[in-house]
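Fold Annotation — chain and its backbone

Fields — amino acid sequence, structure tokens

___
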Amino acid sequence: MTDTSFIGKSVERKEGRGKVTGSAQYVDDLVFPEMIYGATIRSPIARGRIRAIHFADGIPWSEFTIVRAADIPGKNCIALLIDDQPCLAAELVNHPEEPILLLAHPDKYLVEKARQAVQIEIDPLPAIFTIEDSLAKKEIIWGADNTFKSFLIEKGNVAGAWAAADLIVEGSYETGSQEQLYIEPQGMIARANPAEGVTVWGSLQCPYYVHKALAKLFALPNDKIRVVQTETGGGFGGKEEYPSMLAAHAALLAWKSGKPVKIVYDRAEDMLATTKRHPSRTIHRTAIARGGKILAMDIDFTIDGGAYETLSPVVLSRGTIHAAGPYNCPNVRVSSRAVATNCPPHGAFRGFGAPQSVFALERHLDRVAEAVGLAPDELRRINFIREGDTLPFGQILREKINMPSLMARALDLSDYHAKRARFQKENPGRAIKKGIGFAAFLHGAGFTGSGEERLASEAFLQATPEGRVQVMAGSTEMGQGTNTVFTQIAAEALGIPCDQIEIVQPDTANVPNSGPTVASRTTMIVGGLVQKAAHALRETLLLSELLHPGYDASAFARACGQYTSEYGPLKSLVKYQHPPNLHWDDTKYQGDAYGAYAWAVYVAEVSVDTLTAEARVDDFVALQEVGKVINPTLAAGQIEGGVAQGIGFALYENVVWQQGRMVNAQMTNYVIPTSLDIPPIRVLFEEIPYERGPAGAKGIGELPLDGTAPAIANAIAHATGADVRKVPLTPEALFELLDNVQEKASV
């Protein structure tokens, strides 16, 4: 074979040229003949009963296509895990911005004017806006008890551990909502009629989620539904489930009007109406021996799911499993639940659940270390999990990870110990105080438990007679590098150059269902399928004796041409096979939660201006073990971007809710970090190849969100002595904490 080694190299991005030259086509670039423009009329209040819809004078309503819930041909729901969320509210509304009515017209400016001329008359009903009120059942707004889902993990005997403890440390921690703020807003174009069915083009992460939702909404067979992903400008989980709603609205308007319909949200509507990271509350109670050994962890974890279930059980599951972190504790209980409120439904956001529970754990452990008189790193070193130990949910750790060594390297790279001592000496009397903190954590790659087995993902490769190999998978490129990584994996497995690999646009009419592009699974799971399909295709050529060992690109192309001429299409379809040694019990919520984990230690150095109560990250070290790194530049970019979002989660991004509605839905007052707010981020990898990952790779996309906020919070606590329990730490929140520090000092 020719020297075609691409794994571990930063090859050119597959889609990069189109993006930088402007030739890439996003959904709002597409124009169809006779296309009209759609808009959504939404509820102005959180909960109530619809009494009437009024259309003001001065608008040529006869020219408009108007869709109500009664116009839906199938079931009025957005099918996902369950069918509780309506596509259009018919009688009751359960959150602000809930869709009630759809409009479309050839003049998009008139559509906007018409939207403002529709008045929805609603009789208000009592609403719930907080986790506490939902748990207290002040109103029952969903099911029998406002609870979408609950889990319980138990290991050992937590109740029996308290008596042996030298110290018990308790604490309650909170995280707020966070907007995904992808660079391209949600957008969709639909064409639909009874004869041809429904086709949508849009900015999305999961084509087959949209496919499932449309099939049920229109009561059509699967072959009458087609979903095409257009170039997608970011997703971060925000384009996982919500595109099903937008596709449904565009398709209903197209179905009734007989014309193609485009709906593209502006930034305000996107922020007001779509999903966000779940707010959370975590309560820790920890039993500890005088020497620092953690004897028991009792963790109560609750997330705010909003008005409908959507993906809350999945988010809750991951947050629950990650709540006890990379530690070996003999007695653990994690009880968790997702509860309903009358806010717009919360959904997936990078890390989904783990950033919330990891923040609470890593912040709590710094407090535990202080209480027992140990350094934060010493407490963790004593309690880190090691190969052969058992995680709280019953999984025996088989990975050869060495967390004490990983932590030691990260602390050495950041000069942690010297800076910690220096800052403590220099801070007294200074207005600007310095601090350094860290977080240690793990993140499971792929779907939890039996999820991958249920998905049964597929990937398909086909060679053209000219020797080009087409990769067909439902996994989407949204800026994270899917197309490039798949190209590298396929080229390496086939022994041909990357420019002979074509990534076929995700289109449910042409590509198999590879599962959703979420959960750090794309490279490890679907990339693994691409590798197996490539190996099978190559083996077919070798067995046919049309290709011989030591071949080059030209020989491969000739062999493809000869094979297709003599035998027909040269193709390979591979379906996911669950590893036989991984077992998960959904009923008991016990077993092998993930095939592999990424492991990390992040260190943040901060400055806190005690006069203005502003915190700033000055330096950041991100060290992680992620298996084999396929593309170093893309991998580093994933970590850098995740850390930047984590800085926003920790310090800046504060969703302000009033009566269930986001009231700062614009970029003037929903603050995200700019390039000036991001410190140097030193990204480093350790590589322990995972035997079932393509070339040994694991997943990394969500990992950096987990550890960034707690590392920063621990650094701020070190700098100021503040008892940090909640993020984001905006200046207003930090001012209150600093005031508390001063009050205690004066007593």
User: Anything to note?
Assistant: The longest strand covers residues 432-445. The chain has a mean pLDDT of 97.
